[in-house]
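Both lines are quoted verbatim for reference:

——
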Amino acid sequence: MKTGRKITLELSDEVFAELADFKKRANISDTKTAIFALIKYALTLPPYFKSFDWELAEKEADDEIASGNVKEFTSLDAFLADLKA
């Protein structure tokens, strides 16, 4: 028989709504299974992603876009050629 530990989570309404959306997209029927899937996924992320400052990265990207530091490409080939340049 497997043994385990019981935990209690308190989720804000906003997080709970996001959880409901995740359940729908992942075709998961119950909340416990969805939370378990998310925790398991988070624990298997490489350390780089666990410590990455996503909010800072998003702010930096927004700043670059606002300053016009962007490129547009008319085709995938043009995009790939720019990456190789």
Remarks:
- The helical segments are 13-25, 31-43, 47-51, 54-66, 76-84.
- Residues 13-25 form the longest helix (13 residues).
- The CA atoms of residues 39 and 65 lie 33 Å apart.
